């Protein structure tokens, strides 16, 4: 019997197989939410997205369930799914938790990162600074995330990595929004540079402290941005 023919679909301009299609759709929707192409608090039109992404409702709904588990979408019985709003209190709590995980990871990573891993972190920092200098927000944001993930991975603790991934999925949108805060982008670059220097010096306590402060300050920048948006709406 001949093997079944694998059917290809186009999602976000890319051809993909049916295997893992829901995750590919979730990846694109996540990117749209993070970049505020799908605005917080707005209903999601499944029909429109199906047409836009050339997919059926079944994988789209599976993708929405995945995003709901990440805290990005609210699923409502007999009503359209909703892009989850970013609340001030939740933002503070989220970044405190994320900062605590990254502080522990940085302390471990300072002692466990290999010379090759430290070299890679140094290269990532250099590339990120190049994107900052050129005001390229999207690649900068991706490298920023890569650096945080590389530090956590350097701790060599799979449980920490898993916990961090769950929190980071919820914080991505807020982190991206924080770059719009006046002065925060340049401050973030400097803070990353200081964390790297502490890791290179194998100073576990300093690396953990600096990374925790960096993450918490980012959370505060998001809250300030939310308050500014609320004030403009009320005016």
Structural class: mainly alpha
Q: CATH top level of the largest domain?
A: Mainly Alpha
Number of separate structural domains: 2
Strand order of the largest sheet: 1-2
Name of the CATH superfamily of the largest domain:
GntR ligand-binding domain-like
As a whole number of angstroms, the C-alpha radius of gyration is: 20 Å
Using the alpha-carbon principal axes, give the shape.
elongated
- The H-and-E topology, N to C, reads as EEHHHEEHHHHHH
Number of strands: 4
Q: Which bin fits the share of residues in helices?
A: over 70%
Distance between the termini: 69 Å
- What CATH calls the topology of the largest domain is Four Helix Bundle (Hemerythrin (Met), subunit A)
- Average pLDDT number: 85
This entry's quaternary arrangement is single chain
Give the number of helices.
9
Textual characterization of the structure:
By secondary structure, the protein is mainly alpha-helical. It has two domains: 76 residues, Winged helix-like DNA-binding domain superfamily/Winged helix DNA-binding domain (Arc Repressor Mutant, subunit A), CATH 1.10.10; 147 residues, GntR ligand-binding domain-like (Four Helix Bundle (Hemerythrin (Met), subunit A), Up-down Bundle), CATH 1.20.120. It has nine helices and four strands. Strands 1-2 form a two-stranded antiparallel sheet. Strand 3 and strand 4 form a beta hairpin. Helix 5 packs antiparallel against helix 8 and helix 8 runs antiparallel to helix 9. It is elongated and about 55 Å long. It starts with 7 loop residues before the first strand and ends with a helix. The N terminus is likely disordered.
């Amino acid at each position: 019997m001949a093997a079944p023919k694998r059917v290809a679909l186009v999602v976000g301009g890319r051809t993909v197989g049916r295997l893992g299609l829901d995750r590919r759709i979730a990846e694109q929707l996540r990117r749209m939410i993070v970049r505020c192409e799908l605005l917080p608090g707005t209903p999601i039109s499944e029909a429109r997205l199906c047409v836009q992404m050339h997919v059926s409702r079944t994988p789209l709904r599976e993708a929405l369930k995945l995003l709901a588990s990440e805290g990005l979408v609210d699923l409502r019985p007999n009503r359209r799914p909703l892009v989850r709003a970013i609340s001030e209190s939740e933002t503070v709590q989220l970044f405190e938790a994320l900062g605590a995980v990254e502080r522990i990871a940085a302390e471990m990573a300072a002692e466990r990162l290999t010379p090759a891993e430290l070299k890679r972190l140094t290269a990532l920092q250099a590339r990120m600074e190049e994107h900052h200098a050129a005001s390229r927000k999207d690649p900068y944001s991706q490298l920023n995330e890569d650096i945080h993930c590389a530090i956590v991975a350097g701790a060599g603790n799979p449980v920490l990595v898993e916990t961090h991934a769950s929190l980071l999925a919820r914080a991505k949108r807020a982190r991206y929004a924080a770059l719009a805060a006046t002065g925060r982008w340049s401050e973030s670059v400097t803070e990353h540079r200081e964390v790297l220097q502490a890791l290179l010096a194998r100073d576990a306590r300093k690396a953990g402290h600096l990374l925790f402060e960096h993450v918490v300050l980012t959370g505060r920048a998001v809250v300030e941005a939310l308050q500014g948006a609320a004030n403009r709406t009320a005016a």
